[in-house]
UniProtKB/TrEMBL annotation:
Stated name of the protein: Ethylmalonyl-CoA decarboxylase
GO CC annotations, alphabetized: cytosol
Record field: catalytic activity: (S)-methylmalonyl-CoA + H(+) = propanoyl-CoA + CO2; (2S)-ethylmalonyl-CoA + H(+) = butanoyl-CoA + CO2; (2R)-ethylmalonyl-CoA + H(+) = butanoyl-CoA + CO2
Top-level class of the enzyme under EC nomenclature: lyase
Entry's EC annotation: 4.1.1.94
One GO BP annotation of this record: fatty acid beta-oxidation
Species this chain originates from: Perca fluviatilis (European perch)
Keyword field contains Coiled coil: no
Similarity annotation: Belongs to the enoyl-CoA hydratase/isomerase family.
Length: 311
């Protein structure tokens, strides 16, 4: 299988250490599609770039927590073609960030994401281009989910269609009060194409996934918590509390899982990811390999010296 360029680089780095062989094999699966599947990355990127508008912005902070913002408020943060390319490029940047620990994915101006910009969708509505766009976005969102960091989608306002699919490419989902996640694909004569259905089944189970997709149900925070799609609910701050408070609350929530040394947080994500995606015997070998990268490391030795095991 021909790998995406960034994956080729990561594999080269990983395979240089004998202790990361199983993890390197998992990275091989990072790009679900390649030229073997008739996906020409350059061709589809060029076609998508022909439909500009909005942006996907990345802020990397010294804390090791990054914020990814879907930014196209005039279209309810719908993905234009160029924003799809932006997303793939931002994932590449995160893949090469050594000190990463966590990621918050949010939408600009009080709404999460309303899926695809219809002007771009109409222009590539033929089956051939639609399939290529589907493969491109599946690659990007699979790589997002497999990042060696802990990610959370901060859902404010609406997450519709492809926006709902984007939430499933994060490890966790936080819903603001009054927000809605809705897989509206059936209303458009479609099913999810960015990997959202496969990921949704793993999150909420096949019965709930069938209800959400077949009924295009509106998932509010209460229902989200009930079926396991939401991991927490945040109250939308009042205007007098200041701008950015909701994001700050999300960062505080995420900090429960990202506190500590970056190598340890990354190791946690790696063993969970391998346990989810690899056969048991290979997942066990990966766990052993990743364990070897932190055993006797600075964080481990410091914890032993401070006898912090039961704190």
């Amino acid at each position: 299988m021909v790998l995406c360029a960034v994956r080729r680089h990561l594999l080269k780095s990983s395979s240089s250490s004998s202790s990361c062989g199983a993890w390197a094999r998992l990275l091989q699966r990072g790009c679900v599609y390649s030229s073997v599947h008739c996906l020409d990355q350059g061709e589809i990127r060029e076609k998508l770039q022909a439909f500009p508008g909005g942006s996907v912005d990345l802020l990397k902070q010294e804390s090791g927590i990054a914020v990814l913002t879907i930014n196209y408020p005039s279209r309810m943060n719908a993905f234009s073609g160029s924003m799809m390319v932006d997303l793939e490029e931002r994932v590449s940047q995160l893949e090469s960030w050594i000190d990463c620990k966590g990621l918050i994915v949010q939408g600009a101006s009080g709404t999460f994401c309303s899926g695809s910009d219809l002007s771009a969708v109409r222009a590539i509505s033929n089956p051939q281009d639609g399939m290529k766009m589907c493969m491109f976005m599946q690659n990007a969102l699979t790589r997002l989910l497999r990042l060696p960091l802990i990610s959370v989608a901060l859902v404010e306002g609406r997450a519709l269609g492809g926006g709902a699919e984007l939430t499933t490419a994060c490890d966790f989902r936080l819903m603001a009060s009054g927000s809605v996640i809705q897989f509206v694909h059936k209303h458009m004569g479609l099913v999810p194409g960015w990997g959202g259905a496969a990921r949704l089944v793993r999150i909420v189970g096949s019965q709930n996934a069938l209800k959400l997709l077949g009924g295009a149900l509106k998932v509010d925070p209460e229902l989200g918590l009930q079926i396991g799609l939401a991991d927490g609910v945040l109250e939308v701050p009042r205007a007098e509390e200041g701008v950015g408070t909701l994001l700050q609350r999300a960062e505080n929530w995420l900090s429960h899982y990202t506190n500590g040394a970056a190598p340890v947080v990354q190791a946690v994500k790696k063993v969970v990811l391998s346990g989810r995606e690899l056969p048991l015997s290979e997942a066990l070998r990966t766990e052993k390999d990743v364990f070897g990268t932190v055993w006797g490391g600075p964080a481990n030795l410091q914890a032993l010296a401070s006898k912090s095991k039961h704190r």
